[in-house]
Each structure stands twice: as C-alpha cells, then as structure tokens.
Design a protein that fits this description.
By secondary structure, this protein is of the alpha+beta class. Helix content is 27%, strand content 20%. It has 2 helices and 5 strands. Strands 1-2-3-5-4 form a 5-stranded mixed beta sheet, covered by helices on one side. β4 (84-88) and β5 (92-97) form a beta hairpin. The protein is globular, with a radius of gyration of 13 Å.
C-alpha cells in the first residue's frame, strides 16, 4: 500500500482501518498496489465525510477498463458491508463510513 505524498492521514477515524485492509486485499487480488489519493486533505463538497476522517479516495487508473473498476468496487462493497458507501468516480473510488443508524458515537 502506498499513500500519495500530499495525503493527510492524521485524524482518520478507526472505522476507516477496515477500508484500508479490505481495499489492500482487493487491489492485490487484481494484481495492483493500493494507492491512497485522498483522505483529510484537498477540497471536497460541503459536508464531505473527508473533513471528519470518515472517507478515503483510492486510485483506479491502472485498472484496464470500466468493467474491471466496477468489479473492484463491487468486491470492496461486499467486504465492507452496508455501513460503508463505495462510489466509483472517473479517476478513483471513494469509500466512506456512513452507517445508517446512530452516527454520533463515531463522530467524537
């Protein structure tokens, strides 16, 4: 696993550890090395979970095509379950911890 030089990981919340573990496994299964391209750094939409330490962006440019990217997305979602949202963007996969129940216990 690599972390892009300008990515800020300090402040990442504990539920995101599962994302790192699961994504690293999926990337290895697809013959690639996981690269984290965004965490608490950068500019995101208002209210983005990046700002709270509950979101990561994962590089996808080395996957062969959209079909393979969709397979990677599906595999990550399967491993993480429904408390996580996995969104395929053009240049990356965005993963956030977004439980549907009481979020207050995690926001501290």
């Amino acid at each position: 696993m690599q972390i892009k030089d300008d990515v800020v990981m300090a402040g990442l919340k504990l539920p995101m550890r599962e994302v790192l573990i699961s994504a690293d496994k999926v990337w290895r299964d697809f013959g690639q090395e996981l690269v984290i391209t965004g965490a608490l750094d950068g500019t995101h939409s208002a209210g983005s979970l990046h700002y709270y330490g509950f979101a990561l962006d994962l590089r996808t440019r080395y996957f062969h095509d959209d079909v393979e990217k969709k397979m990677v997305k599906k595999e990550i979602q399967s491993l993480l379950g429904s408390d996580y949202d996995v969104v395929l963007h053009k240049s990356h996969i965005h993963v956030e911890f977004d439980p549907k129940g009481d979020k207050n216990e995690f926001m501290e």
